[in-house]
User: Which sequence fits this backbone?
């Protein structure tokens, strides 16, 4: 009974029942159910690191473990159980600290999260691509190699965390530019091996969705309730995602050609605006009339998007007007940007409204780089007011590629015991 009482003190709150199922050859088997699966402590309470501190040579043995983290501790007597379980309690109270690395495209980012609270988020952007009008993969990879070490070092220093305190390393495995992903993946592997800690892989797209759960420990923070719809829009993706849980996401609609961010960038390029074009269009649109020009909108069934027709319509519109007036773009640039932006936002919101109505979901969120667009953010606010819906708009710092969202996703996976093998390789394309 002394053993049972001691176990009760250290078991996780979710473990309401446990049984000493067998005592054979001085071995106690403790389980959370009447079986022989050997689960007494949850994954965060029991891990292989305990072996180093709790292994003895006495005849009695107490088997406590998890299916992913089996751990065996030899004890010399029942009284010593209390001492060992006290050590387990101290280990259990050790904070979960995740270092996350994001390198999927042209931003090198590192973040540190402790027990679900973000401590630091550092990002180094690459301006070398501006003169080329787009991201050059080889240049991006080289820049990541230069940036990853100082970015990680800065993130740890700002968080006030020593590398020896890190519980696991989360990293973006894909999708993205393969060369860029290789830099982040290789760095994460090397650091994890040197520290003897596990790796946690993160899907970049899931990271964007889970950016809504990043917490800075503020009292006024709001996080989505499950289930909710997330409009994921960036330079490479335009998707409507049904989110039932942090690890249960389904794409119910997506672009069949260009993404919204890609349409912004390409249309900006033909107007002579710098790369990336999305922020420039947003800036100029504030000075223009969004009703001045009309551009084509797709008429697809379901929840899918298409932006190639808009891009072509915009290009031909400029071509025809430039024949009559060579200064047409320069004289009407603000109105062109405002009208283009309104068209893109209308296309995005129409499908989202349809999905929310059909599925009866009242919680909607937006994520991805294009979620920084002021017109799209305003459209979400207006949607919430008009339809009395709960809308969730991420802070600007979590809209573009960042390691904070990767850290949050890795934190969820760490708690669930979902770790990554050391031989895992990055992937350029994948789905949620």
Assistant:
């Amino acid at each position: 009974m002394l053993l049972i009482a001691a176990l009760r003190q250290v078991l996780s709150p979710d473990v309401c029942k446990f049984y000493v199922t067998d005592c054979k050859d001085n071995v106690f088997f403790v389980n959370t159910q009447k079986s022989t699966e050997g689960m007494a402590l949850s994954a965060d309470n029991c891990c292989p690191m305990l072996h180093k501190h709790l292994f003895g040579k006495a005849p009695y043995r107490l088997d406590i473990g998890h299916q992913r983290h089996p751990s065996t501790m030899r004890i010399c007597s029942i009284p010593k159980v209390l001492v060992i379980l006290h050590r387990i309690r101290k280990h259990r109270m050790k904070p979960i600290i995740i270092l996350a690395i994001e390198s999927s495209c042209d931003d090198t980012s590192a973040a540190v999260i402790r027990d679900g609270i973000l401590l630091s988020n550092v990002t180094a952007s690459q301006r070398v691509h501006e003169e080329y009008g787009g991201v050059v993969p080889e240049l991006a990879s080289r820049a990541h190699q230069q940036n990853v070490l100082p970015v990680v070092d800065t993130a740890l220093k700002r968080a006030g965390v020593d590398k020896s305190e890190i519980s696991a390393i989360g990293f973006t495995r894909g999708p993205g530019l393969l060369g860029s992903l290789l830099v982040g993946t290789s760095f994460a592997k090397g650091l994890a091996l040197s520290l003897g800690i596990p790796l946690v892989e993160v899907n970049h797209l899931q990271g964007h969705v889970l950016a809504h759960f990043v917490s800075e420990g503020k009292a006024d923070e709001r996080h989505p309730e499950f289930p909710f719809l997330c409009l994921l829009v960036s330079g490479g993706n335009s998707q409507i995602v049904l989110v039932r849980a942090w690890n249960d996401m389904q794409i119910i609609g997506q672009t069949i050609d260009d993404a919204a961010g890609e349409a912004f960038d390409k249309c900006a390029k033909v107007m002579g605006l710098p790369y990336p074009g999305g922020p420039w269009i947003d800036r100029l649109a504030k000075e223009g009339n969004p009703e001045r020009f009309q551009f084509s909108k797709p008429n697809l069934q379901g929840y899918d998007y298409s932006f190639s027709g808009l891009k072509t319509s915009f290009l031909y519109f400029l071509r025809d007007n430039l024949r009559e007036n060579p200064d047409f773009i320069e004289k009407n640039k603000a109105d062109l940007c405002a009208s283009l932006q309104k068209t893109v936002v209308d296309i995005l919101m129409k499908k989202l409204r349809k999905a929310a109505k059909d599925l009866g979901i009242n919680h909607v969120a937006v994520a991805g780089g294009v979620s920084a667009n002021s017109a799209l953010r305003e459209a979400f606010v207006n949607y919430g007011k008009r339809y009395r819906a709960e809308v969730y708009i991420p802070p600007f710092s979590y809209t573009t590629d960042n390691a904070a969202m990767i850290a949050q996703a890795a934190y969820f996976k760490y708690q669930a015991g979902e770790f990554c093998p050391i031989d895992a390789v990055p992937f350029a394309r994948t789905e949620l």
User: Anything to note?
Assistant: The domain at 97-218+402-415 is CATH 3.30.420.40 (Nucleotidyltransferase; domain 5). Residues 19 and 34 are 7 Å apart (CA to CA). The first strand starts at residue 19 and ends at 24. Confidence is low (pLDDT under 50) at residues 1-89.
